[in-house]
Each structure stands twice: as C-alpha cells, then as structure tokens.
Write a structure and sequence with these properties.
Elements lengths: L1 H25 L3 H14 L3 E11 L4 E3 L5 E6 L6 E2 L4 E5 L2 H26 L3 H33 L5 H29 L4 H26 L2 E3 L4 E6 L6 E2 L8 E4 L4 E8 L11 E5 L8 E8 L21 E8 L11 E7 L1
Antiparallel strand pairs: 1-10, 1-14, 2-9, 3-5, 3-8, 4-7, 5-6, 7-9, 10-13, 11-12, 11-14, 12-13
Length: 347
C-alpha cells in the first residue's frame, strides 16, 4: 500500500510540474505583466495588449545615396548636425563630366552663332560688292547695246561685214547674260534664309541646348543633397572611399528628431485590440519607473515579420505581426533612436 501511495504521489507531483511549465511558456512576457499596473493607474483604464517596439523620429528614417558612381571627394556634414532640405551633404568627384559640359557649351554657342548669321544674312560689304557688280554689268549692257544699234544700221547700209555685225550681237548677248547673273547673285545675297535652313538651324540649337542640359544634370548628380530637413544620424562613407550605383549603400542616414514615435509590433492574435486614436504608454528598462504617453496614429494595412527581438524565451518568433505607429508626447523627446521599448495599449 505504501509503495502504491508513493507512486501516486510522484505522478501527481510530475503532473503539477508539467502544468506549471506549460503555463510559464504560454504566458505573456513578464515585463509587460509587471508594468501593466503602473500604466493602468496612469491611464485610468486597463491594458488590453502589450508588445515590443522601437523608437523612431517624427518621420521615417531616410537612407541617402548618390546618383553617380565615383570617389567621395568631400563630406560637408557630420553626425548629429541638423540640415535643411536641399543642403549639400557630400560631393562625388566628376572631373570628366565637367570637361564634357565645357565641350557641350562651346558647341551650343557655335550653333547659336551660325543661326544668328543665317538670320542676319550676308555682310554689308558683300551686299555692296554685289550691287557694284550689277551696276558694272548694266553699264556693259548699255555700251554693247549702243554698239549693236550702230552695227545694225551699218549692216543695213552694207557698210560693215556680216562678221562685224555678228561680233557686236555676241557682245550684247554676253553682256545681257552677265547682267542677269549679277542681278540674281545680288538677290541671293540680299535674300533671307529659307524655311528649311531656318528649321535646321533651330533644330541644331535645340539639340545643343539639350546636350548642355544633360551634362549639367549629370554634374548635378555628383552633389549629394538632403531630400528633407532633419538630423544626420550616420555618415557611412569617408572622403576617398568609392560609391557605386550598381551595389548601392547609403552615404548618410537622416531622421526628423523634432519629435518621437514608436513602431510597435502587435502579435497577430491581438490586432483586433489595437486601432487608430487609441491611447498607449511606452516604457523601457533604460528608464525604470517612467511611462511615456502616446496615441496610435495608424496601423499598417499588411502583416509582416518580427524585427524586434525581446530576448524572452516565451516569445514566439514564427508569428506574423502588424505594425502600429504610436506618436509620443514632448516628454519623450530625449529617447534615443532605435531604443527597444514595451508598448501597452489602453482601453
């Protein structure tokens, strides 16, 4: 009997240990349970769910890269420095592009001058010379015309030979042809450009301007500028190091530190307990006894995987999470970026 009683006792103890172990494994993290009463007292409500999160700036952190390959020639900012939108952060060495821009500008100036000359037409000296040639041709025509008239009268009177008359006629014909040529040449010199020539000149100017614009844009990409106002958190490259757009990595990390928010990761079992506008409290082991109040700004529209590791062995890493953004008050302005916190949602 005693032996049977002892076996029953041992079995009961083993069952009790197993039940306690299962309870500890499936229970929520102890840190959330320990901090819930303080948050409840502060909020005057009840904590419906607690989850891990990380502190961020007022907006998403920006990773800034360059749009051109090359060696980092200069760094103009340091970590912790505040910058405005469009501020110069760094510069990539692009001496070859500077030479290409000079060539493009010279070509553009050349085609513009050619177009201006086309519109202006011939020089004044050329016009005057053409007019003089026309006047000379007219004088020769008048002279040969008079000689032809005399030769005609003499030929009718049989005073000159037929050969002499023919010579006078040829001289007049040559002089008249020369006058027509001079008049035509003068008209061409004084005429404006044809529509085809003007269209070609305009196209050449437009193409040259586009080449200059393209060269300027390429050089502009060599200067790295801040896409938004914020504070430089990290400077990842130094002067002399190379940057490539084939395998890009950020040159700078910038964030808006004028406020703080938390990106909380709500377990898939608890997403129905969190909604926009809900009050929340944030706590961290780095600030024992302190709770930072906030409000849920929005929740994500898609589930994701966990990125915050709590170190709790009871935390299930194979569950999906829903991100919730919690805007914090001014009392959290000194919280460091990336700090792991516990977020408690109150109802």
């Amino acid at each position: 009997m005693k032996s049977a009683w002892m076996r029953l006792t041992i079995v009961a103890i083993a069952v009790g240990i197993f039940v306690v172990t299962i309870h500890l494994v499936t229970s929520p993290p102890a840190v959330s349970a320990m901090r819930a009463p303080a948050a409840q007292r502060a909020a005057g409500g009840s904590v419906v769910v607690a989850c891990p999160g990380r502190v961020e700036g007022r907006a998403d952190t920006i990773s800034v890269g360059a749009a051109a390959d090359g060696v980092v020639q200069a760094i103009y900012v340091r970590e912790g420095q505040k910058v405005s939108e469009g501020a110069r952060l760094a510069e990539i060495a692009c001496q070859d592009l500077a030479s290409a821009l000079s060539v493009a500008r010279a070509e553009a100036e050349s085609v513009k001058q050619a177009r201006a000359r086309l519109l202006r037409g011939s020089r004044q000296e050329e016009r005057e010379a053409a007019a003089q040639r026309t006047a000379g041709a007219k004088a020769v025509v008048e002279q040969t015309s008079a000689e032809l008239n005399r030769a005609t009268q003499l030929s009718q009177a049989s005073a000159i030979s037929q050969a002499a008359y023919d010579q006078s006629k040829r001289n007049f014909d040559v002089a008249e042809a020369s006058l027509k040529e001079a008049l035509r040449n003068e008209e061409l010199i004084n005429a404006g450009p044809t529509a085809e020539d003007l269209a070609k000149a305009d196209a050449d100017v437009s193409a040259a301007d586009e080449r200059v614009k393209l060269a300027e844009e390429k050089i502009g990409k060599c200067v790295v500028r801040a896409p938004a106002a914020g504070t430089v958190l990290r400077v990842n490259l130094r002067e002399g190091e190379s940057f490539s757009t084939v395998a890009p990595h950020p040159l700078f990390t910038i964030a808006d530190l004028s406020g703080r928010r938390v990106r909380a990761e709500v377990d898939e079992r608890d997403i129905g307990k969190v909604q926009a506008g809900q009050q929340a409290f944030v706590s961290s082991d780095a600030y024992p006894g302190r709770h930072f109040s906030g409000t849920v700004a929005r929740t994500a529209s898609i589930m994701g995987r966990k990125s915050v590791v709590t170190g709790d062995p009871a935390d299930k890493s194979d569950r999906d999470i829903l991100e919730a953004i919690v805007d914090l008050g001014s009392d959290a302005a000194d919280l460091p970026m990336g700090l792991r916190v516990t977020v408690q949602f109150v109802r």
